[in-house]
Structure formats: structure tokens, C-alpha cells
Amino acid sequence: MKNRHLTHQVDVAGVKIGGGAPIVVQSMTNTETADHKATAAQVLELTEAGSEVVRITVNNNEAAKAVIRVKELVEAKRKVPLVGCFHYNGHQLLRDFPECAAALDKYRINPGNVGFGAKRDKQFEMMVEYALKYSKPIRIGVNWGSLDQDLATKLMDDNSKLSNPRSAEEIMQEAIIQSSLTSAKKAEEIGMAAGQIVISAKVSRVQELVAVYRELAARSNYALHLGLTEAGIGLKGVVNISSALAILLQEGIGDTIRASLTPRVDESRTQEVTLCCEVLQALGVKTFNPQVSACPGCGRTSSTYFQKLANDIQNFLQLAMQKWRTDYKGVEDLKVAVMGCIVNGPGESKHADIGISLPGSGESPVAPVFIDGQKTHTLRGDNIAEEFKQILIEYVEKRFSKG
């Protein structure tokens, strides 16, 4: 991973974004904010999964009234910055509900729909002034689904007059970039410091997102929030988001990230947080949970038992980490291997901190356990999973110092 693109540092209620600070994971609720209990519960669920900042929708009077109650319920459990997501009527809501304006820790402003025609600049200015009044940072959040059409039209018209015009795709990208940067400059002219501004410029295609953020990084030093918008459902969304984030993060671009993953019906909203954490951990940027290595299985493996065991151990670790994270310093760096046969099993297990190699088809029905590269146990019988978990617990208690 290249050195990070140097940006201004933004303080969001104690969470540092940019300026060399660790990359921050963000998420967004999908509850109706007016339902303050459901919203607070989801905020806590997202933070427990690893989200460090949570955005909530503030779209009407009821939502604005509920913000202070959401914050009270959340802060009774833990401190987490709440970002208000405003569209169309944010200037009115901040004006009419000062307790909402004061309670939120950051405002998200979309310059594409903050106002239209002659009202745009005035209403943008009002939102920035409220941010200044309450000492709140802002995110200039441009989205190509709600882009400033006046700007886009002007750039298209200017481009059509050129002898060698650029493609419509390139002009749209330029419109997104200009909307972001000119809005940020306007905010500075009104009184915001560069260190109070985060920029995001979201599109829904990987290569376009990469192109836009490379330009933003080249043209400015504002803190950058990465996210592929409308990425999709399931595996498609995971692949698209992971590809986009990995390319930019590997180039040192990005200070905070979110995965706009569409959850399946009845699927936990925390999937988007887990995805961000997994991307950062895969790139070696941050560690959140112990890493479990497991082979994919082949004709040598005797059954799906090792797959079940790998899943069982993964779930066990996720549950245990709720307590281990506070009790054992550095435990998130733990590496565990669950392998299915003799070919790579012992070798992979030796490379992990602790690993188990299950017997494959036709192999002796024993499962050697390796700790710090040395064989320490040989497990047999029907209770291998529980015995291995106990060995894991003892290893963690012995190796990792109390926090």
C-alpha cells in the first residue's frame, strides 16, 4: 500500500478523519429516524459490528425531533458520532430544530439538491452557517444520481463546442469533481476551515469511481470519504465495493469508507460494516477480528466436517471477541487455521498462531493441533470442535496480556 494521500484532519466528536489518522469505517441506518428506539438500536448494532461513525436520515420534522432522543439512547450505552444526512430541506430543519442541529456531530450536504436555481447558493450558505454556529464539520456529498444539473448542462454545452470534445462519461466525471471542489471552496469562503470539510463523490461503477477519486486526490487536500453508491445486492455488491475500495486504498487514497451494500430481506444491516472491516484487514490496513484460514475442500477431504468446523470456529471467535477485545490486548491479530487434509494442513497450521489439520479421505482419523509452529495436541473422536475451542481459549488467555 502506497503512502497515504496527505489530507487535512477533521475531528468528528473525537473521531479523527484524515491527516494520517487510521481509516475510519462508517455506516448508515435504514430505519425511519422518527422511530427513535429502532434507530438507536440499529446505531448500536452497527457500532458493535465495527462502525466508528453512523449516519442517520434527517428528512422531515419528525426525524429532526427524534435526533436528540436517538442520541440520548445511544450515549447511554456508548459514544458514537452521529451524522445527519440532509437533502432538499436541510436548511429548514436546521433552522427550525436547533436541538437537532446541536445534537448531530456532522452534517452531510448534497450540493446537487440543497436547493435549485437562485435558492441553491443561499440554502447551501444557510447550512454551512448552521454548521459554523454549532461548531460541526460537514461532508460535501456529491452523488451522480442527484448531480447539479445546471453544472452538468453547462459543461456538456461547453464540451460540444470543442473541436475535439471529450466523452459524455468524462464530462459527467468532471461535473462531479467540480461540484465537490467548488462547494468545498464556497464553504471555506463562508467561514469553514479546510479541516472541517470532508468530500465524497459517489458513483455506481468501479472504474468511474477510481477515476473521480484520483482526480480529487490530485486537485485537493480535503479529507476523502470513499464509497461506491448503489453497489448492488449480495455477491455482486460485495465484489464491486471491494474492488473499488481496494484499488483506491492501495494507492493511498481515502480517509474514511462506507460499503453501500443493499441488504437482502431480513439480512442484518451490519453486513456493510463487516465488508469494510474485511477489506481493511485484507489489505493489512487495520485488524478487527482474528483471521481464520480454511482450505476450500477437494476430493481429498473426507467430508464437509472441516467446513463446518471452520464456520463454527469463525462464529465462536466473533462471539468471544465481544469480551476478548477489551480483556486481551492485541487479540484481533490472532491467526487461526482450520484445514481439511494432510497436503497443506500441517504447513498452514504451522504458519498460523494456532491451527488444526483434520484428517482427509483415507487418512488416519486424528487431528493434530499446532501452536506457534509446534505440534502440541492430537485430537480424536466426536468432540474435536469443543476441545479445539478450549485450546483456543487457553492460548488466548496465556498469550495476550490483559488490557
UniProtKB/TrEMBL annotation:
EC number annotated for this UniProt entry: 1.17.7.3
Which ranges form a coiled coil? none
CC cofactor: [4Fe-4S] cluster
| Reactions catalysed according to its record | (2E)-4-hydroxy-3-methylbut-2-enyl diphosphate + oxidized [flavodoxin] + H2O + 2 H(+) = 2-C-methyl-D-erythritol 2,4-cyclic diphosphate + reduced [flavodoxin]
List ligand-binding residues for [4Fe-4S] cluster. Answer: C295, C298, C341, E348
Which UniProt keyword terms apply here? 4Fe-4S, Iron, Iron-sulfur, Isoprene biosynthesis, Metal-binding, Oxidoreductase
The IspG C-terminal domain is annotated at 292-392
Gene Ontology annotations of biological process type? isopentenyl diphosphate biosynthetic process, methylerythritol 4-phosphate pathway; terpenoid biosynthetic process
Determine the domain of life of the protein's source: Bacteria
Q: Name one Pfam family in it.
A: GcpE
Cofactor, free-text remark: Binds 1 [4Fe-4S] cluster.
What GO annotations for molecular function exist for this entry? Answer: 4 iron, 4 sulfur cluster binding; 4-hydroxy-3-methylbut-2-en-1-yl diphosphate synthase activity (ferredoxin); 4-hydroxy-3-methylbut-2-enyl-diphosphate synthase activity (flavodoxin); iron ion binding
The keyword Metal-binding belongs to this UniProt entry's keyword annotation = yes
Pathway it works in: Isoprenoid biosynthesis; isopentenyl diphosphate biosynthesis via DXP pathway; isopentenyl diphosphate from 1-deoxy-D-xylulose 5-phosphate: step 5/6
Domain called IspG TIM-barrel: residue spans: 7-274
Q: What is known about what this protein does?
A: Converts 2C-methyl-D-erythritol 2,4-cyclodiphosphate (ME-2,4cPP) into 1-hydroxy-2-methyl-2-(E)-butenyl 4-diphosphate.
Q: What family does the Swiss-Prot or TrEMBL record give for this protein?
A: Belongs to the IspG family.
Name of this protein? 4-hydroxy-3-methylbut-2-en-1-yl diphosphate synthase (flavodoxin)
